[in-house]
Design goal:
Distance between the termini: 22 Å
CATH architecture: 6 Propeller
Number of helices: 1
Order of helices and strands: EEEEEEEEEEEEEEEEEEEEEEEEEHEEE
CATH class: Mainly Beta
Strand order of the largest sheet: 1-28-27-26
Radius of gyration: 18 Å
Length: 320
C-alpha cells in the first residue's frame, strides 16, 4: 500500500476492461470521435470503437530498422497518420500512414541516434516533442537512479534539436496548460520534473512532484482542471497532482511483495526487463499512460502487460 498519508479512491474492483487482443498497449489516446487509439507491438496502432470492436493498422510484421517495431508513445496527426516512438532495437520515430505504411520520420539528432525512443507528441503550434529514455544500449542498462542520459528533443520550423540530455530515464512529457513550461517523468528518479520553456529552450529545472517506494512514474497527462495525472509502473498506482503540487491517490492495485522484489533488485544494481514485464499479484498490468473522455468523467489507462485498455471513473462518486 502507499504510505500511510494516502488512501486510494479506487481499486481494481472499479476497473472495467475495454477492447480485447491488444499487444503491449502502452500508449492510449481518445480521438475526436471517441475511438481509442492504442499502440500495438509488432504492428503499429489499434483502434477500439465505441462498441468495443478492435481493428489494427500497420504492416504484419512491422519492422523498423530491420528489428521488430515496439511502439511506445504514439501521436495522432492532423492528416490521420501517427508518429510512433519505437523503443525497440531499431529505435527512432516512425510515421504510420492512414494506409498502414511505415516510414522513418526522425532517427538521430545532432549525431545522436534515438535508440530507445519513448514518447512523442505534437502540440497546437505544430511543434513535436520527443523523449528518448536512454542512449545506453541495451536500454536495460539504464534501469538505475544513477544513469542520467535520457533526452528531450523538440522539432519545429528550425528542425530538430536537443533540449536536454541528462534526464534519468526520460518518459512521457507534457506542456503545462499555459504552455509556459514542460513537465517530464524521470522514471528512475521517481519524480516529475518541470522546466520553463522559452525561445532558447529549457531552463529553471525543478521538481514538480516526488514519489516514493514502488512508484516509477511513466505516463502523465493534464485534465481540464489543470491537474496532472501520473501512472506508476511496478506499484500500479495512479496519482492526481494538483497545480500546487498536492498529491492524491486515485487508484491502487499494488502487490507489496513484488514491490519489495523490484526495490531489492534496484538497490543491488540488478534491475532488468523482467521487473517491468512481470506484475506479481496486481491485475492492472503495469499502467503506463492515461487519457480522458470528452466530458472528463472517464479515464482510460494503457499498460505494458495488458491485453485491454482499462477504464475508470475520474471521480470516486462515479465508481460503481
Amino acid at each position: 500500500m502507499a504510505d500511510g498519508k494516502y488512501s486510494a479512491d479506487l481499486s481494481n474492483a472499479d476497473v472495467r476492461r475495454v477492447g480485447t487482443g491488444l499487444v503491449r498497449p502502452e500508449s492510449v489516446h481518445v480521438l475526436g470521435n471517441g475511438t481509442l487509439a492504442v499502440s500495438h507491438r509488432g504492428r503499429g496502432v489499434s483502434f477500439i470503437s465505441a462498441d468495443g470492436k478492435t481493428t489494427t493498422l500497420g504492416p504484419s510484421p512491422a519492422l523498423a530498422g530491420g528489428e521488430e517495431l515496439i511502439p511506445n508513445g504514439i501521436a495522432p496527426q492532423a492528416d490521420g497518420s501517427f508518429l510512433i516512438a519505437n523503443i525497440g532495437e531499431g529505435g527512432g520515430i516512425w510515421r504510420l500512414s492512414p494506409r498502414g505504411e511505415l516510414t522513418p520520420f526522425l532517427m538521430e539528432v545532432d549525431g545522436v541516434f534515438l535508440a530507445a525512443a519513448n514518447f512523442v507528441m505534437t502540440d497546437a503550434l505544430g511543434r513535436t516533442f520527443v523523449t528518448v529514455s536512454t542512449v545506453s544500449r541495451p536500454r536495460f542498462a539504464a534501469y538505475s537512479d544513477k544513469v542520467r542520459d535520457g533526452l528531450i528533443v523538440m522539432i519545429d520550423e528550425k528542425g530538430p534539436r536537443l533540449l536536454a540530455d541528462d534526464i534519468c530515464f526520460s518518459n512521457e512529457c507534457r506542456l503545462t496548460p499555459d504552455g509556459a513550461s514542460l513537465v517530464i517523468s524521470e522514471t528512475f528518479s521517481r519524480k516529475v520534473t518541470q522546466f520553463s520553456l522559452g525561445a532558447n529552450g529549457l531552463s529553471n529545472r525543478r521538481t514538480f512532484a516526488q514519489f516514493g517506494r514502488g512508484d516509477f512514474p511513466d505516463g502523465i497527462r493534464y485534465d481540464a482542471k489543470g491537474n496532472l495525472w501520473v501512472t506508476c509502473i511496478v506499484s500500479n498506482r495512479l496519482w492526481k497532482v494538483a497545480p500546487d503540487g498536492a498529491k492524491s491517490l486515485h487508484l491502487e492495485d499494488c502487490d507489496d511483495t513484488w514491490v519489495e522484489t523490484v526495490e531489492t533488485a534496484l538497490a543491488a544494481g540488478k534491475m532488468g526487463r523482467e521487473h517491468f514485464y512481470e506484475t506479481g499479484e496486481s491485475q492492472l498490468g503495469n499502467i503506463a499512460s492515461i487519457d480522458f473522455s470528452a466530458d472528463g468523467g472517464t479515464a482510460y489507462l494503457g499498460s505494458l502487460c495488458g491485453t485491454s485498455i482499462l477504464s475508470i471513473p475520474t471521480s470516486k462518486g462515479d465508481a460503481a
